[in-house]
Amino acid sequence: MLTSKEIYDRLISGYGPVQWWPGTPYAIMVTAVLVQNTAWGNVEKTTASLGDRLNPKFIDSLTEEELQPLIRSCGFYRAKSRYIKELTTWFKGYGYDVQRVQQKPLSDVRGELLALPGIGAETADAILTYAFRMPSFVMDAYTRRFLERLGYEFKTDDERRAFLTGGIEHSADMYGWYHWGLLEQGKSHCGKNPKCDGCVFGDVCKIHLK
Predict the structure, then answer these.
(1) Is the whole model's pTM more than 0.85, yes or no?
(2) Could you please report the per-residue DSSP string of 148-194?
(3) Which pLDDT value is given to residue 209?
(4) What distance in Å separates the CA atoms of residue 95 and residue 16, rounded to the nearest whole number?
(5) What pLDDT, in 10s, does the model give residues 39-78?
(6) Residue 91 in 3-state DSSP?
(7) Separation of alpha carbons 64 and 140, rounded Å
(8) Contact 188/177 with Cβ under 8 angstroms?
């Protein structure tokens, strides 16, 4: 079976050059919430509409009710407005200063994020890695499905994360690039209904080899 580094190399050869989550650190934080249970295209419409207003001081100045129509296209806008306001208040506690967040241990920051409403493990890890450049590997449904189809029998996300981060550089850049590659794999070939033609893992995928 492939090592984590071999999987990464295939992803990059198949989908590179790598890309990064777009936007300022604060915009990444907000869009990590907005993308929950919706298509990325809806997030892009919202961020384009907000423009320069997508900054913590402006969002902090709004009530939840005032924020709701601005993010309506992303769905679940009432809940998400609350989540974004709570996240912004948390960031305000650091003076909206990315470096102040980075000075704390990753585990502490992750714990603070997970304590906020609407911030689960996937969202917290995306914020840590992409907004604050703190390496916390993002585990999502695409990755779980992909590893299962390759024949790995991990039972927990901790096991999956330990495998994927073993043998690769321990950095936010590497973790972000790897997650991006896994997203591309999921969208292009390894969704709920697999599309095996042209997949760079066709020679090792248990579904393709049946």
Answers:
(1) yes
(2) HHTT----SHHHHHHHHHTTS--SHHHHHHHHHHHHHHHHHT-SSS-
(3) 61
(4) 36
(5) 999 999 999 999 999 999 999 999 999 999 999 999 999 9
(6) helix
(7) 28
(8) no
**Nearest Cα to 173, choosing from 140, 135, 139, 138?**
135
Task: Write b or e for each residue in 189-207: b if 16 or more Cβ atoms lie within 10 A of its Cβ, otherwise e.
Answer: bbeeeeeeeebbbeebbee
What number is the average pLDDT over the span 187-197? Answer: 90
- Per-residue pLDDT averaged across 152-160, rounded? 96
Amino acid identity for residue 66 in this structure: E
Instruction: Give Cα 192 to chain centroid, integer Å.
Output: 19
For the record, the structure tokens of 153 come out as: 């029998």
Give the tokens for residue 111.
């714990």
Q: How far apart, in whole angstroms, are the C-alpha atoms of residue 168 and residue 48?
A: 35
Is the separation of the CB atoms in 139 and 122 below 8 Å?
yes
Mean pLDDT to the nearest integer, 142-153: 95
pLDDT given for residue 179 in this prediction: 96
What's the pLDDT score for residue 18?
Answer: 83
Contacts of 68 (CB under 8 A, 6+ apart): 77, 78, 81
